[in-house]
């Protein structure tokens, strides 16, 4: 299954944590639980921008949050 994801559309766990104003551990827990989609590169994770948007939309219905 090939998807077209540009590297500029991928965030590190630290970047996602900063955007959401939570700890990196919280983001790691979301990734491990499968609550937020991620891609693993070796020992690190990258989170697609679309996954962050979907997660925020699912937790805050009707919100107008943009990344």
From TrEMBL:
<protein>
    <recommendedName>
        <fullName>Helix-turn-helix domain-containing protein</fullName>
    </recommendedName>
</protein>
<dbReference type="InterPro" id="IPR009061">
    <property type="entry name" value="DNA-bd_dom_put_sf"/>
</dbReference>
<feature type="domain" description="Helix-turn-helix">
    <location>
        <begin position="10"/>
        <end position="58"/>
    </location>
</feature>
<dbReference type="GO" id="GO:0003677">
    <property type="term" value="F:DNA binding"/>
</dbReference>
<dbReference type="InterPro" id="IPR041657">
    <property type="entry name" value="HTH_17"/>
</dbReference>
<dbReference type="Pfam" id="PF12728">
    <property type="entry name" value="HTH_17"/>
</dbReference>
<dbReference type="InterPro" id="IPR010093">
    <property type="entry name" value="SinI_DNA-bd"/>
</dbReference>
């Amino acid at each position: 299954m090939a998807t077209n994801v540009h590297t500029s559309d991928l965030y590190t766990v630290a970047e996602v944590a900063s955007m959401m104003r939570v700890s990196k551990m919280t983001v790691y827990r979301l990734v491990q639980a499968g609550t937020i989609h991620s891609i693993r590169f070796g020992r690190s994770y990258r989170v697609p921008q679309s996954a962050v948007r979907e997660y925020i939309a699912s937790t805050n219905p009707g919100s107008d949050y943009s990344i």
